[in-house]
Amino acid sequence: MSNNEQTAIRFEHVSYSINGKNILYDITGNVPIGKITTIVGPSGTGKSTLFRLSNGLISPDSGKIFVLGKNIEEYDPVSLRKIVALAPQSAPMIEGTVFSNLRLPFDLHGKAFDETEAKKLLHLVNLDPDLLFHDANRLSGGERQKVSIARTLANRPQILLLDEITSSLDPVSQQEIEHLILSINEKYKTTILWITHQMDQAIRVGDFTWMLMDGKLAESGKISELQMSDNVRIQQFIKGETK
Ligand SMILES: Nc1ncnc2c1ncn2[C@@H]1O[C@H](COP(=O)(O)OP(=O)(O)OP(=O)(O)O)[C@@H](O)[C@H]1O
């Protein structure tokens, strides 16, 4: 591969099926390092599956995946997930305080964790340090999502996978989270892959966009390039005429 330094994740003819049903088919593409790439496309088209492949939760039936130039099969799962971290839509919290939720990744990796470290993480996601000993499950949706993002950032991942992290939030929290992610990308040059159902969000935040349709990478590029596509289904999706 010629462009390792520029590529965070490379998919080479990646296919994945469940019980004989093709979920993803012959995906080839590069996710550029340090940029925000949004993943859009109709429901059930394989977007979350692409994420599970990217952090090694599942393996392709055929094809290869390279993370920072190295074949994903050569990573051990723990170090891979330190590099490629996933923030899910639901922002799941264990019972207990914000502090006990934030310490989870540290415990998992046998690393020391204290109040100073926890407050640094809250600061990173613009949350009030006074929230540290609040019940995590009583936070607002936006606050919970910020704690989830802080927890995902604990290992300073180079690649961040965001799976519809704002879809259940009110417009103000949604905007706050968008700003937060943009600032993390700018400050730490973290590569971001962001699944979103909202085309307007993809346009606002994405440097590049991948459009998945029927398990295939139908189009990829700058959103302005996708808007010029002569594929009618892509046009309809971008205009919000199909879901
Ligand atoms: N464990 C599984 N067993 C059977 N089918 C599955 C499994 N996981 C995913 N699928 C199927 O694979 C397809 C792709 O699912 P995936 O969640 O990747 O799509 P998606 O594009 O993220 O969808 P959405 O936008 O609705 O979240 C769907 O048809 C789904 O039903």
UniProtKB/TrEMBL annotation:
Domain ABC transporter: 9-239
GO molecular-function term, one example from the UniProt record: ATP hydrolysis activity
Gene3D superfamilies: P-loop containing nucleotide triphosphate hydrolases
SMART domains in the record: AAA (SM00382)
A Pfam family that the UniProt record links to this protein: ABC_tran
Record key words, sorted: ATP-binding, Nucleotide-binding, Transport
Gene Ontology biological process terms from the UniProt entry: phosphate ion transmembrane transport
GO CC annotation: membrane
Protein name: Phosphate ABC transporter ATP-binding protein
Organism: Fervidibacillus halotolerans
Phylogenetic lineage: Bacteria, Bacillati, Bacillota, Bacilli, Bacillales
